[in-house]
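Design request, tokens follow.
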């Protein structure tokens, strides 16, 4: 079977004689009252295998390399003394005993998750802290209202908010320095869970002193010939703009003015420094007052979804869950 994937080759390498399950060597000492149960990660791996039918795919979902996943499964079979899966050239299927073990394991894992969440709640209730990081639009125009509502129900909660671009938010989560993040860019790293909280659109705007003020529309070529003001690389606004331009086979020209916050771009536009790219959330009042003008650029679509993000496999603290409920219900 020459087209077999590397993952499937690895899964079947030790089982070249078909699907008959290997009879594991039993390690009975784990059944005694003083011995530990099989580790939760191996049980979780078995449960994921039951749903996806592949050791490789299950390991990938849990961040476990293929060889390590196979080794964990073999160790689990040795510890229980039960053949849990039948390996085939198409992947693997659970034995009847394996399905029973999965049913029991799911109960245990659910209890473990509840235990972890309860302990985390106790810890955070004692500490009373919530650490956040958010990209500029969310931090400046959405989070203040959400945090106000959260403090109404948790007045003693201490909240810290770091405003940075979407790439930096992801890095903060990777370092486990924050509980919850908010991003604006078009892509979410694979190791993060995303939850949509709002929709947004970027607009092309100029200040009252700019020569294009009052003009209903400009083409993409005219836009690229202008003095553009946008966010820095790594920001959601910049990524969304570049993706929209890429759909037309063009890119940002040299000489773009890069500013590190939405407020800075807005001020520069009002003062006539150039053509800005700003969120609709950031310009409503300025458009109403006539301080800036929105120009239509036919074919340039810059819609985006603002999202809350947190580490896959992590248990959100109670304050983080409460904030997420507020954000998604607004």
């Amino acid at each position: 079977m020459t087209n077999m994937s590397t993952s499937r080759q690895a899964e079947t390498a030790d089982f070249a004689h078909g699907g008959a399950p290997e009879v594991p060597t039993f390690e009975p000492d784990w059944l005694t009252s003083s011995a530990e149960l099989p580790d939760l990660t191996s049980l979780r791996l078995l449960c994921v295998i039951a749903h996806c039918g592949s050791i490789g795919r299950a390991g990938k979902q849990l961040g476990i390399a293929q060889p390590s996943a196979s080794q964990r499964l073999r160790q689990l079979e040795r510890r229980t003394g039960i053949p849990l899966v039948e390996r085939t050239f198409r992947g693997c299927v659970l034995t009847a005993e394996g399905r029973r073990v999965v049913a029991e394991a799911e109960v245990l894992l659910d209890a473990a998750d509840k235990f972890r969440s309860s302990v985390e709640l106790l810890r955070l209730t004692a500490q009373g802290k919530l650490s956040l990081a958010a990209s500029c639009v969310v931090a400046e125009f959405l989070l203040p209202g959400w945090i106000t509502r959260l403090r109404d129900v948790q007045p003693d909660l201490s909240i810290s908010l770091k405003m940075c671009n979407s790439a930096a938010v992801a890095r903060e989560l990777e370092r486990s320095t924050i509980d919850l993040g908010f991003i604006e860019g078009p892509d979410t790293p694979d190791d993060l869970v995303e939850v949509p909280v709002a929709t947004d659109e970027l607009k092309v705007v100029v200040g009252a002193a700019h020569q294009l003020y009052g003009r209903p529309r400009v083409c993409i070529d005219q836009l690229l010939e202008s003095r553009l003001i946008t966010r820095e690389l790594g920001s959601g606004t910049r990524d969304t703009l570049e993706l929209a331009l890429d759909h037309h086979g063009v890119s940002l020209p040299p000489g773009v003015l890069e500013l590190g916050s939405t407020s800075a771009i807005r001020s520069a536009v009002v003062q006539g420094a150039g053509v800005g790219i700003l969120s609709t959330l950031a310009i409503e009042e300025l458009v109403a007052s006539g301080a800036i003008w929105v120009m239509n650029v036919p074919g340039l679509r810059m819609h985006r979804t603002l999202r809350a993000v947190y580490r896959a496999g992590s248990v959100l603290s109670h304050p983080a869950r409460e904030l997420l409920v507020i954000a998604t219900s607004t």
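Comment from the thread starter after seeing the answer: thanks! DSSP finds 13 helices and eleven strands in the chain.
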